[in-house]
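Practice problem 4.
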């Protein structure tokens, strides 16, 4: 799976090994790790977020950057809350 349809829009998915379909179209509230501000994201975006945080912890900065760029493109407001 390299693309997903959500609310009439097509999203190109950045990581082939992430589980994008775990919760289907369910929206999940995610909190900023430092300030606590929250945003709601579709589960496939939460999967990308999880990969970003994991890559950061493992110092895999090329993977982290790929995920950050994806968020900037598709979910810029969530990027500003969660990852900026």
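Answer key:
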């Amino acid at each position: 799976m390299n693309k997903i349809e959500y609310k009439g829009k097509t999203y190109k998915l950045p990581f082939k090994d992430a589980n994008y379909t775990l919760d289907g179209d369910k929206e999940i509230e995610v909190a900023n790790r430092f300030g606590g501000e929250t945003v709601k994201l579709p589960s496939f975006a939460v999967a990308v977020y999880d990969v970003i945080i994991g890559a950061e912890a493992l110092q895999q900065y090329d993977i982290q950057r790929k995920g950050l760029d994806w968020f900037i493109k598709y979910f810029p407001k969530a990027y500003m809350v969660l990852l900026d």
